[in-house]
């Protein structure tokens, strides 16, 4: 199978030839509990492999996915966005929100390079799966309003927060339209859309799932419908760190097809149960114990974890292994062992 075929088979909840792989590395210089002299996880593995091209890292690891995303725009000398955030945080009523002058998406994202970046992926010697990454509605509003204030608003004035969700939705959906316009006839090459928001904590949901169902599920459904019109061959993946299981009924009803990152150790996230309860309706991407085994275990611990995830989440297909946001403190040897184990021991055929 080509990498693209392998990923699409898994997202269709079928068996590929081997377990597909994806990865993301922390790119901040002071991320995680350790500050390794300002070296990001991405730079750390590039240094270890003695390469100056991140693509060579992806090749070494056998990664089946390439990411296509808008870039950051030029700095705004008028600080329009910062002034806007100040207004959002001061707003008290729905009418305050409606009277504001809302910015346009191009203050945050630049799509001009998408066609060039897409062509670069298509010109590679392998046919890779292509992920598109855009804004996450809940994460945007959380940044705008301030996290604690958003949660307070949701409990005390749900009309206010739903209005804010709607405004954010109307702001960023034109980004996806510009994305599709820039790609033109190549929108059919997009394999999955990465969206979502972190609604889970380690030991419980961040909010009552009933609030999610009442006020947020409809936004997910609208997003799924709109984006599948723009990218007709793409699967829809919902990102939710932490205890995501309580939200799965809403997500499945809304049309979500893939759950990410399937964070082990969190309440309700036992792999065997997720696969038994939801494996006929959802595929899974993630499933790596990044906080424990990957960061603190031996290379043999990592190998055993990969085989466990393969036997459970990966049983009969429907799973892509994908460590999420690898941090600087993770030993490079453990990262290499994870993907080497996939290449040598995680074959279905």
Describe the protein's topology.
Blueprint: H1 3-11, H2 41-49, H3 54-61, E1 65-68, H4 80-90, H5 94-99, H6 114-122, E2 129-133, H7 137-145, H8 147-156, H9 158-183, E3 192-196, H10 209-230, E4 235-239, H11 248-254, E5 258-260, H12 271-278, E6 283-286, H13 293-296, H14 299-312, E7 319-321, H15 332-345
Parallel strand pairs: 1-2, 2-3, 3-4, 4-5, 5-6, 6-7
Helix pairs in contact: 7-8, 7-9, 8-9, 9-10, 10-11, 14-15
Tell me what the structure shows.
The chain has 349 residues and is an alpha/beta fold. The protein is 48% helix and 8% strand. It has a seven-stranded parallel beta sheet with strand order 1-2-3-4-5-6-7. The N and C termini lie close together (11 Å).
Low-confidence segments: none
Count of extended strands: 7
Average pLDDT taken over every residue = 94
**CATH architecture term:** Alpha-Beta Barrel
Quaternary class: single chain
SS-based structural class?
A: alpha/beta
Beta-strand residue fraction = 5-15%
- What form results from the Cα inertia axes? globular
Distance between the termini: 11 Å
- Based on CA atoms alone, the radius of gyration comes out at 20 Å
Q: How much helix is in the residues?
A: 40-55%
Biggest β-sheet: count, sense, barrel? 7 strands, parallel
Specify the CATH class.
Alpha Beta
Features:
alpha/beta, 349 residues, 7-stranded parallel β-sheet, TIM Barrel
Q: How is this structure best summarized?
A:
With 349 residues, the protein is of the alpha/beta class. It has helices at 3-11, 41-49, 54-61, 80-90, 94-99, 114-122, 137-145, 147-156, 158-183, 209-230, 248-254, 271-278, 293-296, 299-312, 332-345, and strands spanning 65-68, 129-133, 192-196, 235-239, 258-260, 283-286, 319-321.
């Amino acid at each position: 199978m080509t990498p693209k075929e392998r990923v699409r088979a898994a997202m269709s909840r079928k068996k590929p030839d081997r377990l597909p792989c994806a990865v993301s590395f922390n790119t901040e210089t002071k991320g995680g509990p350790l500050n390794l002299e300002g070296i990001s996880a991405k730079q750390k593995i590039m240094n270890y492999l003695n390469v100056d091209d991140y693509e060579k890292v992806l090749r070494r690891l056998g990664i089946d996915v390439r990411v296509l995303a808008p870039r950051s725009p030029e700095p705004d000398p008028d600080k329009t966005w910062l002034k806007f955030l100040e207004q959002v945080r001061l707003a008290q009523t729905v009418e305050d929100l409606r009277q504001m002058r809302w910015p346009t998406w191009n203050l945050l994202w630049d799509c001009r390079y998408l066609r060039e970046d897409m062509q670069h992926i298509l010109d590679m010697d392998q046919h890779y799966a292509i992920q598109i990454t855009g804004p996450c509605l809940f994460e945007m509003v959380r940044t705008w309003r301030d996290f604690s204030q958003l949660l307070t608003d949701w409990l005390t004035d749900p009309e206010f927060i739903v209005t804010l969700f709607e405004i954010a939705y109307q702001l960023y959906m034109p980004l996806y339209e510009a994305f599709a316009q820039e790609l033109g006839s190549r929108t059919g090459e997009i394999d999955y859309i990465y969206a979502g928001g972190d609604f889970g904590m380690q030991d419980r949901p961040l909010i009552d799932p009933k609030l999610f169902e009442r006020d947020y599920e409809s936004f997910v459904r609208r997003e799924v419908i709109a984006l599948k019109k723009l990218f007709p061959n793409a699967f829809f993946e919902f990102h939710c760190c932490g205890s995501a299981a309580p939200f799965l009924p809403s997500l499945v009803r809304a049309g979500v097809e893939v759950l990410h990152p399937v964070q082990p150790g969190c309440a309700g996230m036992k792999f065997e149960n997720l696969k038994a309860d939801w494996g006929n309706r959802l595929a899974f991407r993630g499933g790596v114990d990044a906080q424990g085994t990957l960061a603190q275990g031996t290379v043999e611990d990592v190998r055993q974890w990969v085989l466990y995830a393969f036997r459970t989440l990966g049983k009969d297909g429907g799973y892509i292994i994908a460590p999420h946001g690898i941090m600087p403190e993770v030993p490079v040897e453990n990262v290499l062992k994870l993907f080497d184990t996939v290449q040598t021991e995680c074959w279905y055929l």
